[in-house]
What we know:
Helix content is about 70%, strand content about 0%. By secondary structure, the protein is mainly alpha-helical. The protein is flat and about 55 Å long.
Amino acid sequence: MTYDPYGGAMPQEAEQTAVMLPVEDLPPQAAEGRAARRKGTVPAAQRTGSPIIPPGPQPAALTTMLALLLAGGASLGRPGLAVPLVLLQAVTAAGWFRLNGMWPARQGIVLAFMAGVTADVVLLATGGENGPAVLVGTLGVWLLLVLVLQLRHRGSAEERLSSLTATAASTLVTVLAGGYLAAASNPHGSDVIIVGAIAVAVATVVRSLHGKGVATVVVALLAASGAGVAMAHASGLSSGDGALVGLAAGAAALIGLRVASYDFPSRFVHFTAGVALPLTAAAPAVYVLGRALVG
Length: 295
């Protein structure tokens, strides 16, 4: 077991992910463990069982709370939406790093989070009409900054590559969540966001309660589509549009949930990536359908 500063002891499987970090970035116990393994005094942990561990009902409940915050913020307008969106981006940045085995990597998490905040500020300042251009432009600038900062990395070539990959991917995913704010600039954009967020919550909860299997996926998608129809009646969308938005958002949510379930994730991953990725993955679908259906 190693020490996890966010939750006490980390699982033995998660200890392997610390190998890719520089010694100076590790907690004392983890650094000692690495040194012992290099000397051959401690055998490497062997992974057994399935690498897919779903986050479960508790993270799904937090996803539901965050989805309700997004839906409520969208009903208040773009500034109101920006508040829960920043929270979503913070949880996304932290969760993606830990999911990729990078810990503690605080600088990279902050860098990815600030990229998302920068995109939000620019979207608010420009009105959001050119949302994709703003997101791509912000991403390009921050990826260049990521490359520059990686030149100062003192680790081995393998460690530098792992750090660069995790930082770049985390930045990409965090900025991608800004699609909600870009969608809010469209006519009835807030309605699409509300329908999509509720559909994500429903799909995530249904999936967490009914375990594994293809049948559960189908039930979750049907529930998300049904939630879209129900929410459409309370908004300016038609039933058909609501069903389509709900289905697409639910499918994206299940993909994000599957990603957060991979590779022996720790409890910290479940309560960060497992909470945020279903909503973050749905952001592009919400934006695209918002433009196509009611733009």
